[in-house]
Amino acid sequence: MRNWKFAMASTILGSALILGACGGTEESGDTGSETEETGSDTAGEEEAVVEGSVIGDGSSTVAPILEGIVEEYAGAQPDVQVTVGVSGTGGGFEKFIQGETDFSNASRPIKEEEAAALEEAGIEYTEFLLAYDGLSVVVNQENDFVDNLTVEQLKKLWVEDGTTKMWSDIDPEWPDEEIVFYAPGTASGTYDYFNEVILEEEDIVSSATLSEDDNTLVQGIQGSPNSIGFFGYAYYIANQDTLKLVPIEGIEPNTETIESGEYAPLSRPLFVYAKNSAISENEAAYDFMQYTIENAGAMAEAVGYVALNEEDYEAGLADLEALKE
C-alpha cells in the first residue's frame, strides 16, 4: 500500500536501485548486448527466486518501516505475497497469539501476559530490534504559546481528573481555552508507552479522541486550534509543515537526541517479533525477514526514525540464521 508516508523512502531506495543498474550499464561500455545478457544471466543465478506468502500485523508506528520494505521487497521477490495489517501493537499480538500471523510489529516490548499466552499456545518467537523512535508531542500550528512542556505538565494535561481541561490550568499565562486531545487508541503500543512513562498507569483524559490510525490524529490536530496530541516521530516528520512540535524538558526529538536517549523519557525502541516455526519452515518468511533486517536501517532513516548501529543489525541477522539450523 503506497501513500505519502513512504514516498520519501521509496524515492531514496528506488533511486539507489536505478543508479546501481545504470552504473552496471556504463561499465559494459562498447561490449554491446552480449555483455549485458551475460550480466543478466549471472544476476539470475545469484538471486534465488522465492515463492510463498507471509502475513504480519501490529504497530502503526512501525508501519512506515515495514510497509516501505514490503513495497521494495515486491520488486526483489515478486512471487512472494506479503500482507501487513495495522491493528496496533496489542491487536497485532492478539493475532500472533491466535496463530494468524508470521510476525508482529511492536512499538513496545512484549508484555509478560502476552509472552505467557504465546507459551501456552505453543508458539516460540524471536524479538528483532528494528530502529528507535522519539514519541512526539505536537500542537496545532496556530498555537503560539506552548513552546515547551515538562513531564509534570504532560501528566497534568493528559490524566483524567474530572475537570474540563483548559490551557490556563497548565500555565496561568496561557489562554482560557478548552484543550482538544488526540491520542493513539488503547490497542496501540504508543498508548501503552505513554501510559507507562507519563500517565503512570492512571486513566487518560476522557475527552480525548482515540484512534489506532495515526493519520486520523494528525488530521484532527491540524483542524483544531486548541488541540494537542502525540504519535511516532515519522508521522511528525511527514507533516512538519502543518504541525508544531513541542520540546519536552527543553529537548526536541531528532536523530541525535533519540539515538543518545537525551530525549527522555519518550525515546523508545521499535521491534518485530517473528514466529520461529515460520522462519524455519517457510522459505518466504525467512527471506522476507532477512530482507527486513538488512534494509530496516535505511528505511527507518528515510521515513523519519533512527537506525541502529550496523553491529545490531548483524546480530539480528545472526539470530535469524540460527532459526534455520
TrEMBL record:
Keywords linked to the UniProt accession: Cell membrane, Lipoprotein, Membrane, Palmitate, Phosphate transport, Signal, Transport
Signal peptide start and end residues: 1-21
Sequence ranges of Acidic residues compositional bias: 27-47
Cross-referenced InterPro entries: PBP_domain, Phos-bd, Phosphate_ABC_transporter
UniProt subcellular location: Cell membrane
Region (Disordered): 24-47
Protein family according to the UniProt entry: Belongs to the PstS family.
Known partners and oligomeric status: The complex is composed of two ATP-binding proteins (PstB), two transmembrane proteins (PstC and PstA) and a solute-binding protein (PstS).
Matching PANTHER family: PERIPLASMIC PHOSPHATE BINDING COMPONENT OF PHOSPHATE ABC TRANSPORTER (PTHR30570), PHOSPHATE-BINDING PROTEIN PSTS (PTHR30570:SF1)
Protein purpose: Part of the ABC transporter complex PstSACB involved in phosphate import.
Protein name per UniProt: Phosphate-binding protein
